[in-house]
Amino acid sequence: MLVLDKTNYINYRICPRYGWHRLNRGTQFNEDIKEQLYRQGMEVEILSRKLFPGGWEISGERQAAADRTEELIDSGEVKVLYQATALTRDGLLAKADITLIKKDRELHIYEVKMTNDVGLSPDSRDAESRKEKYLYDIAFQKLAFENAGYRVGKVFLIHMNGGYRLKTATVDPNKFFKQVDVGQEVEALLPAVKAEAEQAKACYGGEEPPCECHLKAKGKRCPGFEQFHPELANDDSVYNLNGIRVQRIKTLYERSILKIGEITEEVGVETGLSRKQLNQIAVHRTGRPIIDKPEIASMLNRLKPPLSFLDYEAINYPIPLFADSRPFQQIAFQFSLCVLENGEEEEPAKYEYLLPVASDEELKRLVDELRRVMPAGGSVVVWHQGAEVSFQNNLAELLPEEKTFFEDLNRRIFDLEKIFSGQHYVHPGFKGKTSLKNVAPVLAPELSYSDLNISEGSQASRMWDQALGEADEVRQKIFDDLLRYCHYDTLVMVRIYQHLKRLLARLRPPIC
Ligand code: SF4
Fold first, then answer.
1. What's the rounded Cα separation, in Å, for the pair 317 and 329?
2. How many C-beta neighbours within 10 Å does residue 421 have?
3. Cβ-based neighbours of 180, under 8 Å, separated by 6 or more
């Protein structure tokens, strides 16, 4: 008999084909990210147990775990279970994070969610999709426990309190978590969940379902989209038009246009493509870049030497790591700085700092070091200033005595990406994007991210998190990789800036 656990049920809800592949083929999608989320989720769950101390943990798989759960519930001697398990005759398998045992087989089930927002407060963002995500999940648990012969009296979601700030040496679980009684909402969902669970089992036991996401918006696709549709993910696909909306894709499909190179100027305008998309198509077709030299010159003229090219790497940990920080607050754990004293062709001076441990003392040291090496004046050049400014604001929030320093840095910021996102330099090699990783291969080809062990920001954050738990040698190796990566980001900015300066120099009229 096919056993349907909660994960497979939720995967079916994401998409039948996605769930089918995971269950029947063991197909992997974004596994390293999932592993980190799993590890962090476990930390949050273990912390939540302090709300209901003294429980017994159920271990083992399926039938053995379900039997042990039943034995402890019926013993009358245990009040709290962690990972209580239900396995029904019709093959539903559920493990509840925390279960309180009441009289006569009545249970209160608590599901712990690693989020600040389960969609049930008046100021929730994406309330409907959040509610759907979390309520169907716990409704499945209730269905399975009731079908296994228990009475589920109450169901709660436990989630993190986004306004919590770490004030003591350790996290206070009573302030860190919020509990929401979702009994009514879950009751209303049960008939739908029951029907869906049956459909999921039928689907998983049958043929591979079709994949129809080629006409769905990005947010509706599963993480397997690119694996399932390699033909749509290649550079020439209309899917790679910057910010393309699904409605426009449908229109292009109706005209049998699947490749960027097939979109004429006329069709692009008729289908309502944006200026950015039209530029991307134009450079793709001609193979020649669009370069607005006067505008680039005017932007670069705003720079004041010395030029400080700055980049941070940050982590948004669910359980606050630093005094006064909040759950998921982005906190910089590393910076790299390259300084061009005269703003010209020289080799930059290089500075950097990486937190060897997650401690308040080290965070203070990082800021002290940044203040020590940062020139007192001149422009601070970053790529994508929104992120860098928010990292600086968060540091200022945690270290109020540094507020003036960071306000000054924010005032001096120059966002080099704006030359590209503002469409003053569009190159076919950028593939419609303006991230450093897309611009670098064209304008700074001597610095290849593919030579690095760490090559993008979310990976850097994951690796720093991982490094903290590793033995000395492995940790040092990861730290070296992180330093190299962050330095690359600043050095690539320097090279792009120097490239632009040379480009403009070629424009100047010859001196007679
Ligand atoms: S890409 Fe879309 S249709 Fe295909 S498996 Fe994923 S969610 Fe389902």
1. 7
2. 16
3. 118, 120, 156, 157, 158, 159
Q: Whose CA is nearest to atom 2 of ligand 1?
A: 213
> ipTM of the assembly?
0.96
Confidence of residue 190 (pLDDT cuts 50, 70, 90): very high
Whether the CB-CB separation of 405 and 392 falls below 8 Å is answered with no
Which residues lie with the beta carbon below 6 Å from any ligand 1 atom?
Answer: 15, 17-18, 211-213, 221-222, 224-225, 228
Residue 108 predicted with pLDDT over 90: yes
Nearest CA to ligand 1 atom 6: 222
Domains in the chain: boundaries: 4-204, 229-288, 294-505
Residue in 23, 212, 222, 227 to alter for ligand 1 test, most ligand atoms within 8 A of Cβ: 222
On the question of pLDDT at 193 being above 80, the answer is yes
Give the confidence band of 212 by pLDDT, cuts at 50, 70, 90.
Answer: confident
The CATH classification of domain 4-204, taken from the options 3.40.1280.10, 3.40.50.2000, 3.30.559.30, 3.90.320.10: 3.90.320.10
Other C-beta atoms lying within 10 Å of the C-beta of residue 158? 21
pLDDT given for residue 116 in this prediction: 94
How does residue 507 score in pLDDT terms, banded at 50, 70 and 90? low
Atom of ligand 1 nearest to the CA of 216: 2
* Mutational test site, ligand 1, from 11, 13, 15, 218, max ligand atoms within 8 Å of CB: 15
Q: How far is the CA of 23 from the centre of ligand 1 (A)?
A: 15
**CATH no. of 294-505:** 3.30.420.10
- Distance between CA 14 and CA 18 in Å, rounded? 7
Q: Would you say how long the chain is, in residues?
A: 512
State the average pLDDT over residues 83-101.
97
CA of 280 to the centre of ligand 1 (A): 27
Return the higher-pLDDT residue of 154 and 129. 154
